[in-house]
């Protein structure tokens, strides 16, 4: 299974529209569009999970393709490095 990053989505895009777009290139296991925590509005990116071979085809075909007047950025998702959290200094 491969996780695909989909960026520069039009704010009008919903999970069904993204699923339909990617299903043209194989089996879509899941679609997750990211919303802003504070406003609940779409942030313009999301993730699609597909079998590895289908994902490679979808990335090749859809990167740069126009959706709602915006060129999509489609590539394999990179694992987000896990930080230690906190970040502040302790003062005694």
TrEMBL record:
Pfam families according to UniProt: RRM_1
GO molecular function, one term: RNA binding
Region (Disordered): 64-92
Domain RRM per the UniProt entry, residue ranges: 2-79
Source organism: Steroidobacter denitrificans
SUPFAM superfamilies: RNA-binding domain, RBD (SSF54928)
CDD domains in the cross-refs: RRM2_NsCP33_like
Family annotation (Gene3D superfamilies): 3.30.70.330
Protein name in UniProt: RNA-binding protein
InterPro entries: Nucleotide-bd_a/b_plait_sf (IPR012677), RBD_domain_sf (IPR035979), RRM2_NsCP33-like (IPR048289), RRM_dom (IPR000504), SLIRP/GR-RBP-like (IPR052462)
């Amino acid at each position: 299974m491969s996780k695909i990053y989909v960026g520069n989505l039009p704010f009008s895009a919903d999970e069904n529209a993204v699923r339909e777009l990617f299903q043209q290139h194989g089996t879509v296991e899941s679609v997750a569009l990211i919303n802003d925590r504070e406003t609940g509005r779409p942030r313009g990116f999301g993730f699609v999970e597909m079998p590895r071979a289908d994902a490679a085809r979808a990335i090749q075909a859809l990167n740069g393709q126009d959706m709602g007047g915006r060129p999509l950025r489609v590539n394999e998702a990179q694992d987000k490095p896990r930080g230690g959290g906190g970040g502040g200094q302790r003062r005694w």
